[in-house]
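Quick one: examine the sequence and fold tokens given here and explain what the tokens say about the fold. Here goes:
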Amino acid sequence: MSNVTNLIIVLGPAEPDESIEKINSFSYYDGKRKLNLLDVTQQPNNFDGDKYFVGRVLIGAYNHFPFDDFMRHIKSIAFSDKGLVQVLLKGENHERFEVIYPFGLYEE
């Protein structure tokens, strides 16, 4: 029986590739299953808009995902701007995503 978890991770636009590599070093992925980086910053009009997308977005769906362990892993990473990190979580039987701010809400 499956129990699918959908994940979307949103990072600040200047977050380095090293942070993404650290996210994908989570042991559940075993070097094969990684969150996919959406390449949405290359040019305007890539999502029918007329401006560049600001942020880095990773997405994935996993069966029997150990979310609590994953959140501990996320909190162990030294992001360049922790206030911009958002985790969107949708469990198998949920109708919408829950937004989680692992390091608190970003305030300007």
